[in-house]
Amino acid sequence: MTDEYLLSMLRADLEQPSPTVNDYLLELIDAAKESIEATGIWLTDTARDRNLVVMYAAYLYRKRKADNPKGEDKTPRMLRSALNDRLMAEKGGADT
């Protein structure tokens, strides 16, 4: 799972063709990996995990840009579901 590949996927997801924010996006990718691993998920180099990292990093990017005066953290249902499914698959012994 190379960061350059994840970066290109994230830029496409965010429709961000400009390389001027690459360093920031790479930091978000690292933060996403750390947050996912903190839930007990061991990331592997699979399409499912790559997409999970990109989905989480895109959420972090959009969350910062959103108008959220109370600082509420509402993880999107799709992301929460993907994290739960991935964690259950890992802990249940299913192939990831």
Quick structural gist:
The protein is an all-alpha fold. The chain has helices at 3-13, 22-38, 47-65, 77-91. The chain has one domain (3-91).
Written description of the protein model:
Helix 2 (22-38) crosses helix 3 (47-65). This protein has 96 residues and is mainly alpha-helical. The protein has four helices and no strands. It has one domain. The radius of gyration is 14 Å and the shape is globular.
Strand element count:
0
DSSP strand content: under 5%
Order of helices and strands: HHHH
The average pLDDT value, as a whole number, equals 89
Structural class: mainly alpha
The outline comes out as globular
**Which regions contain 5 or more consecutive residues with pLDDT less than 50?**
none
Instruction: Tell me the radius of gyration.
Output: 14 Å
* Helix proportion range: 55-70%
**Span between N and C termini?**
15 Å
